[in-house]
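Thread: "does anyone have the structure for this chain?"

Original post by V.I.:
We have the sequence but no experimental structure in hand. Need at least a predicted one for the grant figures.
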Amino acid sequence: MRTKPHCMNKSDSLFFLPHTDDRVTPLHIAAGLGHTSSVACLLEMGAPVEAVEKEEKARPLHLACVMGHTPCVDLLLRAGADINARDRTGWTPLHYCSQEGHRAVVLLLLGRGAEVDCRDETGSTPLSWACDKGHVSVARDLVAHGADVNAKDRSGGTPLIEASGRGHAETVEFLVRE
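Reply from O.Q.:
Generated one for you, tokens below.
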């Protein structure tokens, strides 16, 4: 039994070819599944940290964030992943983890300087998405790091409107007090 991950040689030309026709790389897969030791191994061997898959334009960091894999997010950031990288719809890693309620990942990204009020193609911020899903702890963290509680999206929606429309009373109460 091996205690350390076994990596292929950098000279293996097949190693970094896209895994699928959609340009999903081994690093995308390992990051999305939270396989920290595989992510570390792939990065050590020179896997492209900014690889972009074809359909959603997601990077490994997006996948680690949406799934809440904090150790993988940390490794990818240390390897130089763009903390504010945007996918096809303008979502950043912070949008993904805020919507999913992954507080530890949110705090890691904010601590590393992620743009707190970044907007997607609809004009929505990570705070709007956290409120839409009722993730009050994430909403508190975003506001504590300077998120605009009155930010309007392109249709005039605000975090309060999102939380109210979904019936998230605790989130509504928090936003009203802010």
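V.I.: this helps a lot. The CA atoms of residues 28 and 60 lie 4 Å apart.
O.Q.: and Residues 1-6, 10-15 have pLDDT under 50 and may be disordered.
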